[in-house]
């Protein structure tokens, strides 16, 4: 009953509508709003339908019910069921709608509300009373019939069945059964042509409306259509597929067949005329049906005019979003359907190069620099073929390519396409860098634009191509695996081709439209508009109307003003080039050339393109190796389009470099940028580094930078960092404006997904109105690509999306500065909850780095002393300064964020160790030369150099033999061993003095053996008990009964080994779960451990030592001397390890007798506290942390420090403080840390605070022993000889660097850099300089005088002093001008 009622109503509506359309729109007169051939999109269709409805309603009598009106409206919207559903599916958009939602909407359209109360007019209410009750009952019955599950959760398929009962699956099945029962006369289960055409309409019940309309056709033609598999019979599935309008497979197959039959000119498309000629059969195909709307036409006869209308009609979207979307995506796929899609049309013609020949230098894999262009290009090149392979890994192959562009390509855009499965660099015939080629997965830089508008006068070209046998990320077997050194790389493509700009542009349009439709999280209007637009474009393209497709796209992407979000994303091109990582440093030089030249070429095509690059070192390489490219870059820098950022020498590690090294990164970096480009960088740029020291904000302030960009904290494993734009407050309270690009990446592709992700992630919505998107392939990928720039243009103004504009980072920071009062503040370090193994991996490199940092400090100090007191030949000074500067650059390069942390391949580590060795040798030689120049070559005595600005009394060892034999030693107060003599010496603050032996201290150092087999080492400061396993069972300060060692365990200096198997990043990560695998090695009865118990090695009076040894694990050995000297308040653990483990971490653990909720760790110019507990997730993520020379656990009045000479990984847990000693990762360096290691650490219990107990000073001393110099004859030249050179009267203030000013030649000054080390305000710190001084001016880290930085000087004879105030942890630098 219900179905009949609905059907009659629907029929009335459909017929009425049809009649009206045909009469009103097509026959009566020309329609007002629509002409044949007009382009109609779905919105104007809706408008038109409204017009039709209005007209039709005028023809109705007043007595006609509202129901008829609404039926007309409903049926005219049949094609929009999807949209109706979408509109009804209110928040949360879960893909289902309820009966109430539907009914409310239905009634609202009629102006009444659900409870029947009057909303608009009395008439409406009356109409409801008269007719609606019945209608609602009918609708409700239909609703419940279409429901398969929950009636309040109707999904789209159920909804369609409700709106089109004749399309519901069960109904269609019934029709199929009816047809089969009636027609299958021979009962074989299928219908042959005879049976099929036997159908008489009379046989079909009047009730079977759909079936009647099906057979009201030319049955022979229909049979062919229904017989999908073409077997000459129709089975039930085929019949069902035909009847089901939503079956896309059928529709596509049918369309393909019909296009083949109708395509009379065989151009692959069916034009309107061809369709007209084909006539009714074509129209039987639903491919072109505008859904239900056109279905009404199916029942009638067609005029040519009708057909033309249908062909020009903008096909509205079929009901299935997925098929439409995928249709678009397949049309631009680089893999599927390329025979017919746009990607297949990317090039309209192609041609082989005229000649391709090859030359390779011998052993080029060792270093490409042996064969630069000037040598390679003049060699004899021999012919090679596409498909040939070249190797091995890291080798270089040169190709000469001769090209003849055909005359017929006049006016075309012509590409040279190259793919050698490697990175490669294109050179002009005259030796200029042209452009890099990359080999990334996505379309990147596989082509070079030979001509934008080819002129045949310029048809022959000759180029050289330098192929580097490595991929973008080296040549590892997996992402971070060690490289396969024997890889061969295939030359895949070398040809020229005509670039089809139109096809490319349409492909980019479709890509963006499809992405907008797919990625829009709200599935809102923009997504649907994009889907309709893309679909429309496809139909136009398939109809051969490419120009119109372009227009449709242009209309979509045009600036619609003010409809975008009130949020701007500044898109910044970049290319994060790791200065070494999965490839050696030398390959980075070429990576820079390839990527930077790509950027320069793109700038020629895209005037809006802006590219940023960091790391002065990389620019210097370009300057040295590729001068023509450097000139081009300089030009673009001037234009403001190639923008140097960062201000540093390289993007360094954020944890391990010393404070002074940090300053030098800026000093050398900014100096380079200023000299070469006339401008310093305005932001610190460190997107990829593994954690950020709490001292960075102050260091930045000290070098004049107030902005900082990174994103790495988004890699946190435990806690999500709460901000993207914020004020970062450092250790001393200095602040820096910080921004993390919210897409949490620096290699975006400018895809819709990147924008969506960015908006979704941005955690400071409302606080700030701009953000940065960093796009471009990193490392070997070549930076930005044409695709990315095309995408940005299209995404500039999309309604509902942020404005996406090209720009420079400083724009965003300027805006952030204006909004800074809104921003939140983060205080303290930016600790990365990941990659915490990098404080320990590659132990040798870390040790060399520490030693070189100190050596450079010392050589600069000695040079300053010399220059202050003697006139030094300018040439000699220049030579020394040159060597020191080169050494600094080398050191800074090796502080790069994959070298110093230890996350590089073995080649890089070998190179780094050599580089540090070279620094050590070269600087050591300069040190020696300065010393000789200063003090003579000396058989005339020995000197003592104290590089620290406090008085020291230490035991030193005078090696046997050599120049030191001239030291007068009183054997009574000395101690001998095999290699030399120990004596006590004293040195004033920062001084060079005659080496003089001091009398024996009152209390000497002793070693005793106790009855229980333990040993005791004691001196004037402490008493330590050691068991036979080398463990410290007790340590007490002299005269105190308080033990520093936890007496429950008595196991300090336990050497523990843990399994160390990270989630993925082998060299980088030590995961929290390693803590669950602890095994103490130096304990009784440990399986696999062989102990050589402790024995006395030395027994005073100046030095005492106990020695023990063990072998363990995979054949590893550890031996340790536990040493105490008479003048030392700390116990030294001098350790040698032969390390042979795999995926293990070794630590020394100290359970202490201290209650401390925080442990303190030294960092650059200060120290930070971190929790010893895991209360919060932020606390527990800090299970492995970084520290420099010391760490401390203290309670009131007492504490214990550990001093470290080259280790940086620490952990604290309750009362246990541990130092990480060695790791054994296998990727990317399979031999990481395997072999011999020598290192020292020390245990220092103390009374009071670590500040009052001089822990900071002792840690410096532990790292910088007094130096013995030879020769003394000319010591007198040093003013203030035998006393201090520089004195500082406050222990809290540390004089960290003394150096000649960077521009010493023009500005004769010495730079002094201090920091406050206790975390206290120190007013009026007096600094006394024992040499003649003209003036002292406060300066910044770049050695630029500060405004009103001049200081008041006090002179006393040959000495000068000045007083300054220090704030907690404050860094201050001064220029001391010399006469
Ligand atoms: Zn990196």
Automatic annotation (TrEMBL):
Pfam families: Alpha-mann_mid, Ams1-like_1st, EF-hand_5, Glyco_hydro38C2, Glyco_hydro_38C, Glyco_hydro_38N. Residues 214-249 form the EF-hand domain. Keywords: Calcium, Glycosidase, Hydrolase, Metal-binding, Signal. Residues 1-27 form the signal peptide. InterPro entries: Ams1-like_N, EF-hand-dom_pair, EF_Hand_1_Ca_BS, EF_hand_dom, Gal_mutarotase_sf_dom, GH38_C, Glyco_hydro/deAcase_b/a-brl, Glyco_hydro_38_C. Its EC number is 3.2.1.24. It catalyses: Hydrolysis of terminal, non-reducing alpha-D-mannose residues in alpha-D-mannosides. SUPFAM superfamilies: EF-hand, Families 57/38 glycoside transferase middle domain, Galactose mutarotase-like, Glycoside hydrolase/deacetylase. Belongs to the glycosyl hydrolase 38 family. This is alpha-mannosidase. It comes from Notodromas monacha.
